[in-house]
Sequence to fold (274 residues):
Amino acid sequence: MSRIKSSLCLSWIVLFATSFLHAQSIEDWQARVSQTQAQQPRWITPLVTVTPRLEQEFRFDILRQLTPNGDLLNLGGGKGLEVIPSRNIEIIIAAPPAYLIHNNPAIKDGFGDESFLLKYRLASGNEEHGKYILTFFLGSSIPTGSYRNGSVAAVVTPTIAAGKGFGRFSVQSTLGVGLPVDSVNRLGHAVAWNIAFQYHVHRFLWPELEVNSTFNEGGTNDGKKQTFLTPGLVVGRIPLHNRLGLTLGTGMQIAATHFHTFDHNLIFTARLPF
Fold:
């Protein structure tokens, strides 16, 4: 098991380093980023749904969930550094992993699992060319969580993501499946489907409604599904200096199914796009 974890981590590190070194200078790298982003719609990233757009930013989320074991405060939300090292590619690294604080003395606080995400944009058109995007994701998580604040096995998650704009209205959606590399009988396969509806009201205002669903096949939750409705508001991108900007957002995931592992998940996100 430790060999699998090490191999996954090493593969991601090598991929990141190789791609990043492909940029010959900061100026060339940023010019390439600008050119890449100019070929896709200028939407904002939703609160929960991972955008099919390629972004470059540092992101930090704070989540407060009501769980059967008491309140849970998640600092980081599994987000972190997002970079576009080369054309049509984005890499996301949870740096550092989320830190979980439990309002329950029987459960120890600690860091969650380390996670990575690779995006490859397959096709896109900006506002002048159809306002659409299609992207493939390959995510992975390594069970590095302390005091059981994470999974018992590494998980690989292939995902397809798409988006389409209609004037000021846009829809972004993802569909993926978690494939554990071990303990499959316990974890099963979780199929996650997310869709975000956004409306661009003002230069910086993006109200939204998301539907976040998970369908469990196999494992301890076999046959169970949970769906959340997530109203929210994202404000950005507010210019700060040159390419540096600020984006803020808040919302709440509300359980819409009888089965749910948490409820009333209050979300706050802060992002520094660059």
User: Anything to note?
Assistant: The longest helix spans residues 2-21. Confidence is low (pLDDT under 50) at residues 1-7. The two ends are 37 Å apart (CA to CA).
